[in-house]
Input
Amino acid sequence: MSDTRTISLTLNGAAKTAETDVRVNLADFLRHSLEATGTHVGCEHGVCGACTVIVDGQPVRACLMLAVQADGSTVETVEGLATDGALSDLQAAFSRHHGLQCGFCTPGMLMTLHAFLKEVPNPSETEVREAISGNICRCTGYQGIVAAALDVAASRKGA
Amino acid sequence: MGARLFGASVQRLEDARLVTGRGRYVDDIHPAGVVHAAFVRSSLAHGLIQSIDTSVARTMPGVLAVYVMSDFAAFASGPLPQLAPHPLIQGPITYEPLASGEVRHVGEAIAMVLATSRAEAEDAAERINLDIEPLPVAADLAHALDPDAPKARSERADNRLATLKTAFGDVAGTFARADHVLKETFTVHRGGCHSMETRGVIATFDADDRRLEMWTSSQSPYLVRRNLASYFGLDESAVRVRAPDVGGGFGPKAAVYPEEAAVALAAMMTGKPVKWIEDRSEHFLATTQQRDQIWELEVAASNDGRLLGVRGRCLHDNGAYAPYGAILPATALGSFPGPYALEALDISIDIVLTNLVPTTPVRGASRPSVAFVLERLADRVARHLGLPREEIRRRSFIRVEQMPYVTGTKARDGSPISYDSGDYTAALNLVLDKIDADGFAARRAEAASRGKLLGLGLASCVEDTGLGPFEGATVRVSSRGRVIVTTGAASQGQGHQTTLAQIAADALGVSLENVSVEAADSGKFPLGISTIASRVAVTAGSSVELAAQQVRRKALKTASHLLEAAEDDLEIENGVVFVKGASDVKVTLATLAQSLAGTAGMRLPGGIEPDLAATAYFESTALTFAHGSNACEVEVDPETGDVRITRYVVAHDCGRLINPLIVDGQIRGGVIHGIGNALYERMIHDDQGQPLTATYADYLLPMASEMPNIEIYHLESPSPRNPLGVKGAGEGGTIPAAACVISAIEDAIGPGGTFLRHHPISFEEVAGLIDTRTI
Ligand code: FES
Ligand code: FES
Output
């Protein structure tokens, strides 16, 4: 009785194809069918932002999107941020500013800010805080995350 | 050799994995052939199960099995063992893995479905029909001890689980002689846990060896092992429990849960690996919560503003089960007298059963509640006497020259509590200085000119940390010269991998990158207690130090034999032992480890015992006390009641800091947690025990857009009670935070306004308070 489809998408630059139940959301598809477990699921109702990934350039909540809707798309996840084993500037700044503790919200935070800093390369602190106002972190109090984003913006500008 | 890494803000070793998506949380682990569990839960807060019809569910696609409690009879029956037995609690007041008779809160697990996918398991779970006869519900803490109150558990005579007491001094005399006695009632509210990773567990069972293996998102893998081994009648050696990466704990993940037992039982029944990942709505319904308490207190004070005594009673909502014994209310008793040099104290706590989710320690346990009531009382006295709030504190605090200070109360093991070190007035003065309290009047006037009300809040606390008895550690040098630290202490984001590595690296003269920390796996380290109560730096940290120093001595002894040099002439740096002043006479730690690993037919060097390793269990026999003062400014919009925290400053003393970056992170996260308690987090139940705020649309958590930056200043009063001089730091941010914010809101409303007696406070309430005040 379950209805399945074959989904093909580009995940962090690599072509992927897998079959899935039509009701499976993109987060579960990435995690379980494509074994890309870097994307996390914190609420499954679109509030915590842990599942944030970038689909065709736009940040989306992967728990609110069906895998079938991502068929043919280009998907970026936390696994795609580092290049050749070198952390991205944002990843490195998260570590430097202690922007993560348990690390569970971190993939969603990174992807949200990755997209945001492309759009707003020179944000104010208030803008950074607004940008992540849909991502819950229970550990850090947000300050290190905000500092990391501002630091990256400043050093990209100087570069 | 002086400390090089201890005290440095080194970046965490954990981070590279976690920022690249290579963390390994329970749901990232997929044993071959794993099947998925879903639970059917009670929709009533109190009732008697009449029947459970699983016939349709069993035929659903993908379903392997459907279980109710009686199906487990071959392996287990009855309630789980009491985790922390308390002499006053007649029990066990614990869950069965699946409820079989009476259900006592909404969300209690009753039946379990196993299927090839979680979705199929949930589909089938929906087709299970429960017939539950409703019973009267005890959901109102204030009236749960009334003679005609509904009983939360029908087998008991009433809802009083136990009464805990603490007292010292001449209470009647102190209150009779006092110039002023004021009486107040305070309420603090239960929030939830809300670690971003929910609970989760995987179990496998080897029927031939009768070996159970589990991964669980837990703060207490060794308690899970002890509890389940005892329940199943297995030897602990046949049960391996691991906590992999855990996405936040904050207390509730320290309990052992019925789902952990049920998943293990399902693995025993089927022989297949079984996984269950809690979803967020289950987290709202079945993960233990914070604290609903009602405090009726009297404070005795002198004309000059000294707090002399506190007496009164607390009603503590325990919920329907006591998986954790009386630990949560007991931490309230242990939090008195806070930083105050009271002459007399008399507190009793009635632990009350209700048909709600159990309350267990959440970040600070009952310490934030006690800080709230004590700080409110101090502010109340200030208001009554017309004295500045800080003056009450300066005149009432325990003074630095009184250290060690015997408080008069008793620790959990019955020993007298004494504060070890710390200058409480210095912390208060520091925080007032840093927030520029002297300039506050001008800032308030400026805000008033913009139509806003500015308030200054103040709160102080003392925190018992380093709870005994121990977390142990083994330090071993591998044949390649890597230093491997193994400990039972689990991590949920505190950065132990880094701090423990800093300690070991210093002792052994290696770089941080050459140290690995393996933790929370009962297959790798024999014993462990739990990552709770801000105890791991003291317990595991000290054990790593002791073990690493033993390894150092053993390395030097072996090297002295191999290099034919006196031990005193040797030094270790960068993994090499060399003769001081003759650095080409040297041997690597790797070679030393190899020589102590033995070669067939050869003698060990110098008759030294094999294995370049040592194990230590530092026993923390007395608590060590962190303390701090917080100050904040809030700006209140008098029209809407909107409260914005514009500054938040912390002066904190947790002894010597192993890694300031990590300590600051703990404090910041902790303060934000407390701000959530003050302003946002509401776990509301109706009079039938039905949760009304069980999604993140209704239950608000602190978000980045509303939160201030937290400015932190450290004082360091080293603890004399452990070899590192450290004190715990995991909860000190949370403990005074709600009290500080509420005090600021009250100050913003002004001296003629209402004295605030509860948290959380909503913006609507604040607006109402401003409307009714007389300006
Ligand atoms: S899991 Fe998607 S927003 Fe929380
Ligand atoms: S680091 Fe734990 S939730 Fe953000």
Q: What stands out?
A: Residues 536-563 of chain B form the longest helix (28 residues).
